[in-house]
Amino acid sequence: MKKYKVLATPRSFAATDPAPVQLLEENDCEVIRLPINGHTLEEDLAVFLPEADAIIAGLETYDKETLLKGKKLKLISRYGVGYDKVDLPAARQLGILVSNTPGANSDSVADFTFALMLNMARNICHMDTAVRAGKQEKPVSGLEVWGKTIGVIGTGRIGKGVVQRAAGFNMNILANDAYPDHAFLERFGGQYVDLDRIYREADFITIHAPLTDTTNNMINERVLSMMKPTAVLINAARGGIVDEAALYMALKEHRIYGAALDATEIEPACGSPLALLDNCILTPHAGSATREASLKMGLLAAQNVIDVLRGKECRYIVNE
Predict the structure, then answer these.
(1) For all residues of the chain together, what is the average pLDDT?
(2) Given 267, 291, 292, 320, which residue is catalytic?
(3) Residue 91: which of 72, 76, 71 has the closest Cα?
(4) Catalytic site residue 285?
(5) What tens digit of pLDDT does each residue of 90-129 get?
(6) Which residues of 213-252 are buried (b: 16+ CB within 10 A; e: fewer)?
(7) 267 is catalytic
(8) 60, 285, 310, 313: which one is catalytic?
């Protein structure tokens, strides 16, 4: 019998490569997957959480009420970077560590950001829908990306990946970060500037910042009113950073060209008014959904579990 029970909630965990599960099993862990039974995630967690020594967690919420059900729980190992849906003070109070997998999905999300940018600029989703409906219409015009100005908000691993890709498109790179890496940005001909300059000058604005009290609704009516009528907004970070009601009006009234959101307040954004607009692309927080990123995230999330359960140092604890 295995010594530890590890609950894994993300469906994509070890879905294309069994190596993360094998790593856990080789280290005395039994991996438990949530059944597909029609129950809500909250209902399943109420059943399986009390017996878990650790959780490999997706984007679900872990508030204090949920954490209290984890009677044996020692670690929430986030399968990804963000941990804003975990109540960190409550976890700390209950002696539950929280870890993440920084860097494992950086290339995938940076790639996806550029996919969204090109898709919105050239109306690809709109044309695909038209063709499938038997129409021959083409959009009146699109936008070129080559040589344009990009504003990158947040230059962590993903933001830096976007900068590198933007350099390949000969873009003028403006960036903003609370902890600027001037040496890195200068290598790609970019410069750090204040946010208002980005809002005024950028043709494409892409967000790679965490959701905090400071960034909550950071992209609001004031900001949208500053942007060019040909500007495109991309959010591949976290829902809540963009005021979606204000964005809806800006898009509906064609005050900006378009928006592409992989992160929304409610995910997926199926019932959002934004889904009714042709100049908005919505995806279900899928920036890291590649085979490569899934394997890297899975292995690192599994290693974090093993390190904590065996009492070893874990480099990626976020709530100590």
Answers:
(1) 95
(2) 267
(3) 76
(4) yes
(5) 999 999 999 999 999 999 999 999 999 999 999 999 899 9
(6) eebeebbeeebbeebbeebbbbbbbbbbbbbbebbbebbe
(7) yes
(8) 285
